[in-house]
Amino acid sequence: MDKKKMGFGSKTIHLGQEHDPRTGAHNSPIYQTSTFVLDNVDEAIRLNKDQELGYTYTRFRHPSEAELGKKVALLENGEAGIALASGLGAISTAIMTLVKGGDHIVAADVLYGCTLTFIDDILSDYGVELTLVDTTDYEAVKEAIQPNTKIVYLETPCNPILRITDIERISKIAHEHGAKVLVDSTFASPYIQNPLDLGADVVIHSATKYLSGHGNVVAGVIVGTEEFIRKVRMPHLQTLGAVISPFDAWLVMQGMKTLELRMERHCENGMKVAEYLNEHPAVEKVYYPGLPEHPQHELAKKQMNGFGGMISFDLKDGFEAGKALMNSVEMISLATSLGNVDSLIQHSPSMSHFDMTPEERAAVGINEGQVRLSVGVENVEDIIADLDASLAKMEEIIK
After folding, report:
1. Of 15, 148, 244, 276, which has the fewest Cβ atoms less than 10 A away?
2. Do 68 and 197 fall into the same domain?
3. Where is the signal peptide (predicted)?
């Protein structure tokens, strides 16, 4: 049976997994070891030349990491993948594999706050230049690219305003100028979109989020060509050290077995909650690609298989309303992460984008009353009931 022709749910269970040849263990073992015994010096030399051929030391490569990287690569229709200790570890390692001092990056002007800190504050200390641009303004992207541009970096959907970028169009623009396209697809997961199929060169996931789905692990994955993944591993992962532990890799793989089931429910619940919020009198605006009024709704229908479980919305009464709502939720958890089976909520200006000034946030569409909601897989009636009661309590607090 050609496993690559299986349905998505079957792929998440079976692709990449190899039963332990010694014991026949049904589930992948956890190889909880720091090092590996070699047969002879010739084997050590062979593996040190190419770590993809086997295992010498867990910081370089281990069976649990290799299986997870392979599984996500197959789901993304990529040649190879590598798992790392966090989503930001994946982002920073992928970028540092491609740039050096004097190079230039074009990046989306709306990104996860820590990603922006890395490419704007940290890389600039090493001589890497940056231009931020609205990646839905394709002429602006063209104008931003310079002779030394190595990367066009974006999130789609983006955090937190759920802007959708046309990956195929951006890839054509970047490739005409010799730049690579890196897409953070965390908000979508491989269930919803496959950026490599649309022309991107590298796809990155914070596996902490939808891939694992249970809020019990921090991890990241990079997928690209075999040549690129070799460069990521040696020397960048080897020396930067953002290696995922065997147990954490195993946890992500356990979560991935239900990815299709969870994403179906996230998408279903997300649409219903977005429609509810869209009609609520305390809500100024809802950001959700499944709503017809979303500016990239038609692109989302074309590029994505569903609209996901991430919603942002602006409260009419601003910052204080955002704080009041956060302090009023009961079943929904006030937490900074996303993609869990349980619903999580945050006030973006005081949490994920706290390091930006109000003026900087406003420039990229982050309202002071903006709330980000990661819709879980609970019964949607309970999610809406909690929001309804919390919004009513919020209105009482800010009177």
Report:
1. 148
2. yes
3. none
* Parent domain of 339: 259-397
Of 11, 55, 109, 112, the active-site residue reads 112
Same domain, 292 and 311: yes
Question: Catalytic residue among 46, 57, 59, 393, which?
Answer: 59
- For residues 248 and 161, state if they share a domain: yes
In angstroms, rounded to a whole number, what is the distance separating the alpha carbons of residues 359 and 125?
24
Q: Are residues 238 and 328 in the same domain?
A: no
**Which residue among 166, 184, 201, 248 is the active-site one?**
184
Q: How far apart are CA 185 and CA 196, in angstroms?
A: 11
* Domain tally, the chain: 2
Of the residues 150, 209, 233, 361, only one is catalytic, namely: 209
Together in a domain, 251 and 263? no
310-315 β-sheet, strand order: 283-287, 310-315, 370-374, 344-347, 333-334
Q: Which of 224, 256, 288 is the last residue of a domain?
A: 256
CA–CA distance, 305 with 16 (Å, rounded to integer): 23
121 is catalytic: no
Reply yes or no on whether 59 is catalytic: yes
Say whether 209 is catalytic. Answer: yes
Residues 98 and 244 in one domain: yes
Specify the CATH number for the domain of residue 165. Answer: 3.40.640.10
Of the candidates 194, 221, 256, which is a domain's last residue? 256
Q: How do the pLDDT tens digits run along the chain, 399 residues long?
A: 777 789 999 999 999 887 778 888 989 999 999 999 999 999 999 998 888 889 999 999 999 999 999 999 999 999 999 999 999 999 999 999 999 999 999 999 999 989 999 999 999 999 999 999 999 999 999 999 999 999 999 999 999 999 999 999 999 999 999 999 999 999 999 999 999 999 999 999 999 999 999 999 999 999 999 999 999 999 999 999 999 999 999 999 999 999 999 999 999 999 999 999 999 999 999 999 999 999 999 999 999 999 999 999 999 999 999 999 999 999 999 999 999 999 999 999 998 888 788 898 988 899 999 999 999 999 999 999 999 999 999 999 998
Residues 184 and 217 in one domain: yes
Among 214, 158, 212, 146, which Cα is nearest to 184's?
158
